[in-house]
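cron nightly-structures :: item 1 of 1
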Amino acid sequence: MNNTRRKLAQLLICLSTLLAPVQEAFADSQSGVPTVSQAASESFPIFADDRVLKGQNAREDFYFEVGKGRVTGANSYLDLSYSNSTTLLAKASSITVMMDDVPLQSIALDTTNKSPSFLRLDLSNLALKAGFHKLSFAAHMELGVNICIDPDNAANWTTVHKTSRLILSFAKAYGNVDLSWYPSPFFEKGSINPMQAIVVVPDDAQQAEFTSAAQLVQYFASQATDKRIQFRVYPESELTDTLLSQYNAIWIGQPEHWKTRGQQMVQSLKPNETAAQGQGLIGIVPSPWNSAAVVPNLVVSGTAEELVRASAILTDETLYSQLQGQTTFIPLSLKSKEGAAAPAFGGKYSVSFEKLGYGNISLEGRRNASATINYPIPSNWDIEDGAHLTLKFRHSAAIAYDRSTITVKVNGIPADTRRLSKTSAGEGLLELDLKQEWIGSRREINIEVAFQFDETDQSDSSKSSASQLADFCGDTYSGWAVIDKTSTLTIIPMPRHSINLQSLPYPFVHDGTWNTTTFLLPERFGSKELNIAMTTIGLIGRNTLQNGANIKLLAANTANLKETIQSDNIIYIGPLNGLPEFLNGNEQLAIQYQGGKIVSNHPKVELLNDLQNNAAVIHLSKSPMNSSRGLLLLSATTAEQEPAIDKMLTDPLEASKLTGKFILIDNTGKVFTFPAAADPEPVKQEKKKAVAWEDAALPKLSPIAFWLAFAFLVCALAVVYLVLRRRK
């Protein structure tokens, strides 16, 4: 019996030994970063919703990007799901699929597509290289009626369904990777999972190491299509051989801070030129933990100052595009860069359509054509006095002016409609005040400009009925319009005062730069805290100047902490039992950690025992030490609950629940939102008068000045008269 038990125990030990690498690999696979061995095939959703093409000629484009180190190859294809109106003339109606404006295939639109039809189109031979590409669906639709073809009939439609997908299989565009390919293969622009590497820092990372990693994360986040990206950051002691054999890695640290693995990577750097004594290095070396495949590692090694300069190089395309070879030295200095000066609150600020990213917008080919210009209001601004639109445009002169119009809508609300004219054909100008109620509490201004063209001339009685019918039934339109990129939107920015989870990145980002923010982490932090910190930095800082000078790192138990951070924004990451006492339970917080559980301080929020004892919390409030600064808690009752925060920040569906001042997440992942009391309104100065958007052409004179000027003019005329009379 004892022998049987002994053999059984030995068998269990053997099984656990054999399964350990599998379990370790499975745990590592949950990191959200693809391994180097995973098939480089990605499935792109083309449209978020069913896209309806209307009218006689309609087109929808889908833009995507292929990363610098990639090229598409075999097993790339398009799965197209589409349907169309059964009243279309089958012989004259079709939809054409194009890649970069090159036709790939045309499909007849007939009654067989009443229910969604499916087409798989092979794209293996396209070999799409790095850069942006355009997948287009161009439909030509004709509808038979009793009199003639009616291009604007509501029955003229074709739908490209949201289930359509673009599947691309990628191959490496390079033989041996070196710095000239950076940011590939560590970050691939346009990818579904653009972050293709883990980030490694020394245990107990210091300020420069944290800041340098933060700058890289910000830059990668700014280059990604999706604004919510998971970043996986590990302290050296949490690394495993399995992890390092499967993932590309970016190592950032000072040489003396590394232990065994980090020292091994630093010593692998082989400079190809002579450097100053101890000068820092940036290099790419293969992973020594995988002999079967090349797993590139990017190593950034140097002093604190050198790490900052290295991160500046790796986040500026004009600089990193100059890198070559396997290794380069970190320069002794770099020119400093500063962002544009922020506009003063209370003064007029104008932004052109071109500055918003729009060129001249051309509209043609339809009787009704429109374009939408979007202006996102900076997170630290409020708009209280509406705005002013100066819209410049021109259009075709071959239209019936009395029946052709331009209409402007603001956030879906009609603002004005004007008739087009011969004058506006050459140089149209529309000055429009946008009322505050049209903007409301939205954090963006959507300006829709719509043109309606009528080319028929019903006033010409000399035309025969047949000729007028031919005009009406004509299927070509010479109507067109161009919205000029020099058009401007003028607003008066005011400081924002309300604060809630929807207001992020405010109050941590002001005018495109970090407003000094201190990250408070436990004294001994690990990958859980680092993942949340870097994911938060990527989310909040993706559109900021790549400068980590205003990001600080401190331990939550630092001596004299309250005095040190009283002027800073604060982001606390860690267990609730480590929250500094002066932050826990302050009057700005709706919750308090007390007696090992979460207690509600909100008069309308009741928490039951299960949620109190086991939950993660995301809470944004004003700092208890400075009402113009913010406090963000990313915390949990236990360390096991902390990953739920990371998921909440990066999952688009879950992130939509980030509302109000705070949320709780229970141990099953269920999210609880709560009502938030409105912030007290700041005392506002009484407005003297409405904003005058248009300055007067001439200064206004007071009555006294007018009469003085008049008297001077009379005297001058009298003198001239007397002089002329004496000459006679």
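cron nightly-structures :: done
Confidence is low (pLDDT under 50) at residues 4-31, 695-701.
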